[in-house]
């Protein structure tokens, strides 16, 4: 296993590869040009690059650069030590690209770079402290923004025939499941799962009115395993069975 923290110098030599673990590359001096998963990125003394696991990346530094590299070969164990910040830490490591460091984080990176990184205790505890700080910033940024309802709607529609959990939607927002549930309820007046169910049933209503698809197929397309369960849900939501919906649509079209 590689050291969890290491100091590395980069030059004009073009490096390109991928690895099975996530990696953070934190700038100390110079400029390191990165391409991560086809997206450009830049590492300087105020930024870091997130390289998710198994993501192809390439880098070079024509003028030379010095970086602190965090290799997360034991990612799951490290994330478990973050407590309430674990989910945010996981989301941080899943998103390729640059992250800007706060002044306090810059000081922490500088302190780590000057520490005896060959000491496994110092290296591991320093990595945990850095991850916790970055994860907490991700949470604060997500808290400050409104929920991306258009993106959530698009995700729900793309997965209309498959089970969805609150965690699936929360992951898109950078919030923990519990915080996402509370924010969603406050902003929409519905729980996330009530919202998903209602949106799917409205989609089903449109298909009943506008297509000749069999009821069982429509039920499957909006995530119901049986036609009877779909009918019961439709009656609860709209007070009408699929047959009644279609009869009303025919009558209105005459």
Automatic annotation (TrEMBL):
SUPFAM superfamilies documented for this protein: Homeodomain-like (SSF46689), RmlC-like cupins (SSF51182)
Record's keyword terms, sorted: DNA-binding, Transcription, Transcription regulation
Pfam families from the UniProt entry: HTH_18
InterPro entries: AraC_XylS_family_regulators, Homeodomain-like_sf, HTH_AraC, RmlC-like_jellyroll, RmlC_Cupin_sf, Tscrpt_reg_AraC-type_HTH
Keyword Transcription regulation: yes
Name this protein carries in UniProt: Helix-turn-helix domain-containing protein
HTH araC/xylS-type domain ranges (all copies): 150-248
Entry superkingdom: Bacteria
PROSITE patterns: HTH_ARAC_FAMILY_2
Keyword DNA-binding tagged: yes
SMART domains: HTH_ARAC
Function, in words: Regulatory protein of the TOL plasmid xyl operons. XylS activates the xylXYZLTEGFJQKIH operon required for the degradation of toluene, m-xylene and p-xylene.
